[in-house]
Every structure is written in structure tokens, then in C-alpha cells.
């Protein structure tokens, strides 16, 4: 095992949390790499949490019958929003890491099941955020298998920028393509699709915002149960926007690619990139709105800078008409 941990561009040592990308081709290579990683963990007295597609989980279960230190979890129960994944991994790793017991995770994202470009972008962002979520942990490590069967080097390069380490031949090596916090390139949001509805709002306009979104969502074919969830998410985001975004903002709604979108723009700035990613604690004051919106929407996009303010987009999938 390579004992040298990565450094950032300034030469300062990073967290000892190991986040490895494992490109593979075919079931045999997948099994060889993941089983080697798991056996290293078991030999060191570590627990393992595995979250991979069902076919890959079956392969691993067949090789790990009755191994109590390995737990399989199903990420599909979380729904399509990648914004829920960091919190889930934090909970799974803490649960298995009783006391100071080290834990390894194996998480393979179903990249080919991404609904659209926005979803794919948020999946990559989730991978990068894992470095921030576990930055202060010396007891957790994660391997991210990636099926490179399509030989799409641009996709692999984009994903490699989210991982400080790459696993090769049973060892990890430093990834020179990894982007630190200061360098991560947020992908620009596409312009709203015409025709779109627009509403300027300020203090006292929550009822107007909810009514506008409800009507537009109904016109777009969003089912009633999803409209109720969306109404709660909209209330949370609009309240935060008015309270922290200078007292006013702009709402836009439109439908694109079987998705209903609500966009909130204001002059505020969200400094914490982890905002909304972890479940709020019982005694926490504030900070619940973004987390709740993540739970209620199929996708949530956030772009926030001091210079340009904040844009938040809520995505709700619209069922296809038969």
C-alpha cells in the first residue's frame, strides 16, 4: 500500500480520509478490486459498508457469505436526489464505526441512470463533497468503483477531478487531476427554457409564491401528492431567500425534459457548501430549510457566490403521459 497521503497544491497535508476512484472493466476486474479492498479492511479489523448496484452486490455477497463486518445498503431507497447521499453515508459510517473502529465504504453510483445533464452534474458534485464531509475523519475511507467499459475518457476525467486518489493494481496513488475546494468548477446553469413564468417577490409574498408555483405545477402535469411536497419545499426556500437574500428575489418556473423547475434568485450568499446535506440535529437552531427541500425534491441545484448572489433550482419529475 502506498503510504504517502496526498497534498494540496500548496504542499499542505490533507485529511487522512482516503477517497479512491477505482476504474474497472467487467465483473472480474470489479470483484478483484473490491474484494482486495474489503480483505485489507477485514485484516485490519475494519468494518465495511457496501452500496453498489444490485447485480454487483450479488457478486460480492457470493464471495462474502456470512461475513458480519460487511454491511450492504441500498441507495435506491433514498430516491433520485444526490443531495441526500452525503448525509446517508455519514449515518452509515457512524453506525458501523462503533467507538473508534475504522470503517471503509464502497459506493458505486449508477452513472448511466442519470436522468439528465443536471442530474449527472450533481452526482459528480456529490462525489467531490464527500472529501469535505469526511475531511476531519481519520477513521473512514471510501472506494468508488467506476465502470469504464464505454471508454469515455472525458467522463472519467471529470470524475477523477473529484477524487484525491486512484486505485491501481491493488494500491492507491495520488491523483494529480484532483481539484481542491478553491478549484472545483461549478458547472453553469442552463438558461430557463422558453416559455417560462417570472415573478418578483419581497416580504409578505409567500402566499403569492405558493399560489404561483402550485398553478404552474398543475399546468405542467405534476401530480397532487408531488405538488404538496413541492409546496413545502418552496415555502422553505422562499422564506430563506427573503430572510437572507436581501428581502427580495425573483421566481421563475418552467417545464423541460419531463421536469418541472422552480428557480429562486436573490442577492444572498451561502458560504457553507455542506448546507442542507446533513440531517439537522434535534437541538439545532435553523438550517433545516435546505435539508427539507432536498428530501422533498427530485433534484436541487445551488449556485452561490458573493459576486452574483444565490440561485436555487428545485426539480420535480413529471410522469410521462401514456
What is the gist of this entry?
The chain is 34% helix and 23% strand.
Please characterize this protein's 3D structure.
By secondary structure, the protein is an alpha/beta fold. It folds into two domains: 18-174, P-loop containing nucleotide triphosphate hydrolases (Rossmann fold, 3-Layer(aba) Sandwich); 197-317, Histidine kinase-like ATPase, C-terminal domain (Heat Shock Protein 90). It is built from eight helices and twelve strands. A seven-stranded mixed β-sheet has the order 3-2-4-5-1-6-7, with helices on both faces. Helix 1 packs across helix 2. It starts with 17 loop residues before the first strand and ends in a 5-residue tail after the last strand. 34% of the residues are buried. The model is unreliable at 1-15 (pLDDT under 50).
Write out the strand line-up for the largest beta sheet, numbering strands in chain order: 3-2-4-5-1-6-7
User: For the terminal residues, how far apart are their CA atoms?
Assistant: 54 Å
Q: What name goes with the CATH superfamily of the largest domain?
A: P-loop containing nucleotide triphosphate hydrolases
Largest sheet features = 7 strands, mixed
* Average pLDDT figure: 89
By DSSP, the count of extended strands is 12
Distinct helical segment count:
8
CATH class assignment of the largest domain: Alpha Beta
Radius of gyration: 21 Å
- Detail the poorly predicted runs: 1-15
Q: Examine the secondary-structure arrangement and name the CATH architecture of the largest domain.
A: 3-Layer(aba) Sandwich
Kindly report the CATH topology of the largest domain: Rossmann fold
Order of helices and strands: EHEHEHEHEHEEEHHEEHEE
Domain module tally: 2
| Percent of residues in beta strands | 15-25%
Structural class: alpha/beta
- What spatial form do the alpha-carbon principal axes imply? elongated
Helix content: 25-40%
Amino acid at each position: 500500500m502506498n503510504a504517502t497521503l496526498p497534498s494540496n497544491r500548496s504542499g499542505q497535508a490533507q485529511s487522512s480520509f482516503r477517497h479512491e476512484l477505482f476504474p474497472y472493466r467487467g465483473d472480474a476486474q470489479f470483484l478483484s478490486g473490491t474484494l482486495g479492498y474489503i480483505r485489507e479492511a477485514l485484516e485490519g479489523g475494519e468494518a465495511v459498508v457496501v452500496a453498489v448496484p444490485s447485480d454487483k452486490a450479488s457478486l460480492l455477497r457470493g464471495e462474502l457469505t456470512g461475513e458480519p463486518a460487511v454491511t450492504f445498503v441500498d441507495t435506491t431507497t433514498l430516491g433520485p436526489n444526490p443531495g441526500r447521499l452525503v448525509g446517508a453515508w455519514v449515518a452509515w459510517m457512524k453506525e458501523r464505526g462503533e467507538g473508534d473502529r475504522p470503517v471503509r465504504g464502497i459506493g458505486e453510483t449508477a452513472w448511466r441512470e442519470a436522468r439528465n445533464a443536471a442530474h449527472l452534474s450533481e452526482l459528480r458534485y456529490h462525489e467531490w463533497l464527500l472529501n469535505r464531509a469526511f475531511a476531519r475523519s481519520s477513521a473512514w475511507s471510501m472506494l468508488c468503483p467506476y465502470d469504464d467499459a464505454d471508454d469515455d475518457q472525458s467522463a472519467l476525467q471529470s470524475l477523477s477531478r473529484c477524487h484525491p486518489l486512484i486505485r491501481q493494481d491493488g494500491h492507491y496513488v495520488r491523483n494529480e487531476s484532483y481539484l481542491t475546494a478553491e478549484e472545483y468548477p461549478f458547472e453553469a446553469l442552463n438558461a430557463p427554457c422558453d416559455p417560462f413564468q417570472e415573478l418578483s417577490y419581497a416580504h409578505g409574498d409567500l402566499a403569492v409564491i405558493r399560489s404561483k408555483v402550485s398553478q404552474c405545477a398543475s399546468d405542467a402535469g405534476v401530480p397532487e401528492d408531488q405538488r404538496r411536497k413541492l409546496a413545502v419545499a418552496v415555502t422553505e426556500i422562499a422564506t430563506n431567500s427573503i430572510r437572507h437574500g436581501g428581502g427580495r428575489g425573483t421566481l421563475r418556473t418552467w417545464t423541460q425534459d419531463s421536469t418541472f423547475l422552480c428557480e429562486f434568485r436573490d442577492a444572498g450568499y451561502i458560504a457553507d457548501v455542506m448546507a442542507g446535506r446533513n440531517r439537522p440535529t434535534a437541538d439545532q437552531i435553523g438550517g433545516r430549510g435546505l435539508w427539507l427541500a432536498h428530501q422533498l425534491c427530485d433534484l436541487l441545484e445551488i449556485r452561490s457566490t458573493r459576486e452574483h448572489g444565490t440561485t436555487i433550482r428545485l426539480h420535480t419529475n413529471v410522469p410521462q403521459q401514456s
